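Please describe our next protein:
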Amino acid sequence: MELYPTQDGFLGEIAKDFTFAQVARLAAGFGERVRAEGITRVVVAHDTRFLAKEMAEEAAGILGGMGLETFLLKGPSPLPLFGFALKELEAAGFYLTASRKPARFQGVKLRLGPGKPLSPEGMALPQEAPQKRGSFQVLDRKKAYLEHLAQNAGQGAQGKKGMVYLDTLGGAGGGVLPGVFKLLGLEAELRELHPLPHPLFYGVDPDPKPENLPTLLVLMKAVEPPAVGFALDGDADRLTVVLPGGELVSQEEALEKLRQALGGREVRADGEGGYLFSWHLPEKDPFLAALLLLQVLL
């Protein structure tokens, strides 16, 4: 059994490499590093992959057993919501996700605080999974995150009309954009595609590339303007943008449109569909990017 290091965590195949025993080892090693940093709070979250909820509960139990005040976010959680919770609670974070990887993979993203990724070299894993389990609290911060998102999106999309498609690919991003549309009272018609959590991502990889977006592309080729299509990856920290006719917007073009909508406020792109608004959250947020793009694409 082998876990593969990533920039901010570990990755492996479910059942073969990424097992409950490995999750316990990862949580224990992370907990030791967190305690060494003098951090007392940890937030655990998960995506929609097979057994993600149960593995997150295992990790939360291990961390709680180490004397850390541990919170488990309720339900599958997109990465921006996880980042919001870390910022709100001033906590470290343990997020079970394999992002854009195929459904047979699972992994973990580690944070020593809001926007502070921990590389695998920064922690040691115990040889054996610990036996002690402690308590943790289930935390629901989705409503608070939606309010924060709506506030920072502003009123720029008010009065815009047209069709908006969002393909969440069965990942952790389902249900977020409809909630913000309701809070802002937007008039554009929003239709979510594949919004329910699906451990097999409806038969495609949760990577918003054209080959994984057949439904969205068919709809966007047929739709009459004004319209725009969006797609998310598995943990909802990346965004693909599609115009009527099925034309994909490059990240350079999308970044230019975001700067136009923001009027000078900072936005950074990671070159892979991720957009960071440091004045909003210390994690990338495709939902804010989508709301801002509505202002200039509808």
